[in-house]
Amino acid sequence: MTAKKYYGYLFNMDGAVVDSEPLTGQALAMACADFGAPLNSDLYKAVMGQSWQDVLIHFFIEGAISPNLNAFNEKFQSHYQSLMMSKAQLIPGVQSFLVQLREQGKKCAIVSSGSRGMVEQVLDRFSLRDHFNVVVSKESVNLSKPDPMPYQVALAKLRVDASRSLAFEDSRDGISAAKRAGCKVIAVQHDYNGGNDMSLAKRAIRSYSDI
């Protein structure tokens, strides 16, 4: 068990706490359908973890559409929020792991590229808010992953040294951000991130019971 070695534990939310990547794919496909391009949500597997711009380009090319970006993003956010509130599930074992860390007095943070409102809604839905001392969202930083800034901000707020901190990420950019901030990283594998290079992680898991 790693809990004795580390003081700080930092988690990406989508894909490392909540199994939300399939829902992202579904919301993208639903938004494309709203603009006349019915697509398979599995298309997201090829670009999961890449920038939002690259994700949209991929879907727009596949669907042969060029919608207004603001209008498309509004459709996506509506579908995504509905799916997250109705179908999202936690990554196996994460709730028990968080309880264990809390009992041991460890400091925990969410380090997400999502909006603070969405992060807080998800944390509230699964009654996880009390497990995290710090929440870093896209509004908290000027630069996003793979830049280390989100992790640097979280570490500063937690007041823990990066060398004694462990991050959980499910994408190449997330792993790179945490490593560049000085953290050790565990990769969380799922059905949508098989195309991501996770070689910088110290190990990979599919369930937190594997730790």
How is this structure best described in words?
The chain has helices at 21-34, 52-63, 69-87, 94-103, 116-125, 149-158, 172-180, and strands at 8-11, 107-111, 134-136, 165-169, 184-188, 203-205. Helix 1 (21-34) packs across helix 3. Strand 4, helix 7 and strand 5 (184-188) form a beta-alpha-beta unit. It has two domains: 8-19 and 89-210, 3-Layer(aba) Sandwich (Rossmann fold), CATH 3.40.50; 21-87, DNA polymerase, domain 1 (Orthogonal Bundle). The protein is α/β, with parallel strands linked by helices and 211 residues long. It has a six-stranded parallel β-sheet with strand order 3-2-1-4-5-6, with helices on both faces. The chain contains seven helices and six strands; from the N terminus they run E-H-H-H-H-E-H-E-H-E-H-E-E. It is globular, with a radius of gyration of 17 Å.
What percent of the residues sit in helical stretches (DSSP H or I)? 25-40%
Shape: globular
- The helix tally amounts to 7
The CATH architecture designation of the largest domain is 3-Layer(aba) Sandwich
Mean pLDDT: 95
Structural Rg: 17 Å
- Report the strand count: 6
Q: Alpha-carbon distance between the termini?
A: 6 Å
Beta fraction of the residues? 5-15%
Largest sheet: 6 strands, parallel
Order of strands across the biggest sheet?
Answer: 3-2-1-4-5-6
Compute the number of structural domains: 2
